[in-house]
């Protein structure tokens, strides 16, 4: 789940690139805070260990540490395997990874267009309040626009009021009429096993 105007923020470790212009989805005060060398780039295989550490730090913040089962091998397969399931961006300043965004594409049958779902957005505590989370969001949003996506969505814990207010300030709206449902572990396997008994109605 994430911790926290679609403007591309492209750069590399050697050339961070220009900061986004004021007036294109950023508040000016956030840009003032972002007056630092900042690179946002795609994650690479050698970044997997760093991403795992950041994911674990996120789980601690969200009070979900006991549920975090991510391991380097599984994450590397999901990001860089024969069939990648997710993509990730790293935010780097002074050679130090300080945040990340992890996302994947979904699809809206009503729009007839793809979308992007943001699974995680996280900035380490010592670098919060400097516009880095917003820069990561803007980069993902820019990719959504470039790919012709109709939606950019994510979830937020109900108690995380600062994040909720931040998202609202960007123009994001809660989907209050929708309720998320989840199957995992034994319950997921139990439902999957039902496919071996065709013709049996729902119980």
The main sheet comes to: 5 strands, mixed
State the assembly state of the protein chains: single chain
Strand content: 15-25%
Topology order in helix (H) and strand (E) letters: HEHHEEEHEHH
CATH architectural grouping: 3-Layer(aba) Sandwich
Count of helix runs: 6
**Low-pLDDT runs:** 3-32
Measured as a percent range, the helix fraction is 25-40%
In the CATH hierarchy, what is the class? Alpha Beta
How confident overall, as mean pLDDT?
Answer: 83
Instruction: Identify the overall geometry.
Output: globular
Number of domains: 1
**Overall strand count:** 5
Could you name the CATH topology? Aminopeptidase
Termini gap: 32 Å
Describe the structure concisely.
By secondary structure, this protein is of the alpha+beta class. The protein has six helices and five strands.
SSE blueprint:
Layout: H1 28-33, E1 39-42, H2 48-61, H3 72-80, E2 87-93, E3 96-108, E4 113-123, H4 132-146, E5 151-154, H5 161-169, H6 185-193
Parallel strand pairs: 4-5
Antiparallel strand pairs: 1-2, 2-3, 3-4
């Amino acid at each position: 789940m994430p911790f926290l105007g679609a403007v591309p923020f492209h750069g590399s470790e050697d050339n961070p690139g220009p900061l986004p212009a004021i007036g294109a989805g950023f508040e000016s005060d956030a840009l003032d805070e972002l007056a630092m060398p900042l690179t946002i780039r795609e994650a690479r295989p050698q970044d997997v260990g760093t991403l795992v550490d950041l994911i674990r730090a996120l789980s601690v913040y969200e009070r979900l540490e006991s549920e975090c089962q991510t391991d380097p091998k599984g994450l590397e397969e999901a990001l860089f395997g024969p069939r990648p399931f997710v993509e990730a961006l790293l935010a780097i300043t002074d050679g130090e990874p300080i945040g990340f965004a992890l996302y994947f594409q979904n699809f809206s049958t009503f729009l007839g267009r793809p979308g992007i779902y943001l699974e995680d957005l996280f900035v380490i505590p010592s670098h919060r309040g400097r516009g880095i989370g917003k820069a990561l969001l803007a980069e993902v949003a820019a990719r959504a626009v470039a790919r012709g996506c109709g939606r950019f969505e994510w979830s937020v814990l109900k108690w995380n009021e600062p994040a909720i207010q931040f998202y609202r300030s960007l123009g994001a709206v809660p989907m209050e009429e929708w309720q998320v449902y989840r199957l995992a572990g034994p319950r997921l396997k139990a439902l999957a096993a039902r496919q071996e008994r065709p013709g049996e109605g729902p119980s």
